[in-house]
Amino acid sequence: MIRFTSRRSLPVSERVPVLMYHRIACRPPGTTVPMHYVAPKRFENHVKVMGRLGFESTTLIRAFQEIDKPGKRVVFTFDDGYGNFLAAARILESSGMVGTVFVVTGQVGGVNEWDMGQGDVREPLLTQEEILALVARGHEIGSHTVSHARLTEVSEEEARRELEDSRRALAHLLGNPPASFCYPYGAHDSKVRGLVAEVGYSVACGTEKGWNDRWTDRTRWRRVNVRGDTTTPVLFWKLWNKSRSRATEA
Ligand SMILES: [Zn+2]
């Protein structure tokens, strides 16, 4: 029997939501990005509810490579490589889950200078040793450029350098070049996306909303934004609301 499957009727098993987090910590006074903080207890509830809904967690690169494989998968991503990802990692691991962290390679072991320049509080970033330990525990490390550059506002030469040098730095640290990339500020255009593919990244995401399937452009995978005020019911609503946004509807 021939069964025709339209894009509209793809089951959940062939579509993947990618959740976007920044900082897993209680919100400190004085931050300019209060909604970037998701309290650890709230994050733990998110992880538990995804487990109860039957989702297995995977890394971004595996989700991309296995997009046609049967199963119900979710990707937890964390932008910027904050030291407080260590708390998130423990919570994920206690449910048998993993995360994908996008690090700013010029600031590994340093602080979020790009945020502080805009008046934000100081947040320590993961060190080389912590990154190596996380990879050994199954988490994925991707690139978020060398300096958290807004790639659409720098020269092509500089954008290429941000993409290549961060890739080289992670290859040197991890033994393999990173396969995943995340656009700082979600800023990309066709030229930047072309460079990302040319430099050798397999999959890249920004802040465009929606789920992903086999037709999603690999240089603009979509995500579901999780904020400090995203309670578990709100997460559930966002997931299913965004599941209707498709790659062709950009
Ligand atoms: Zn960022």
**Number of separate domains:** 1
CATH architecture: Alpha-Beta Barrel
Largest sheet report: 8 strands, parallel
Termini, distance in Å?
Answer: 35 Å
Please name the CATH topology.
TIM Barrel
Overall morphology: globular
Structure description:
With 250 residues, the chain is an alpha/beta fold. The chain has one domain (12-249): Glycoside hydrolase/deacetylase (TIM Barrel). It has eight helices and ten strands. Strands 1, 4, 5, 6, 7, 8, 9 and 10 form an eight-stranded parallel sheet that branches. Strands 2-3 form a two-stranded parallel ribbon. The protein binds zinc ion (ZN). Residues 79-80, 144, 148, 184 line the site of zinc ion.
Concise synopsis of the structure shown:
By secondary structure, this protein is of the alpha/beta class.
Keywords:
single chain; alpha/beta; TIM Barrel; 8 helices; disordered N terminus; binds zinc ion
Could you give the topology of this structure?
Layout: E1 18-21, E2 23-24, E3 37-38, H1 40-52, E4 56-58, H2 60-65, E5 73-80, H3 85-94, E6 100-103, H4 113-116, H5 128-136, E7 140-143, H6 156-174, E8 180-182, H7 190-199, E9 203-209, E10 221-225, H8 232-242
Parallel strand pairs: 1-5, 1-10, 2-3, 4-5, 5-6, 6-7, 8-9, 9-10
Helix pairs in contact: 1-3, 6-7
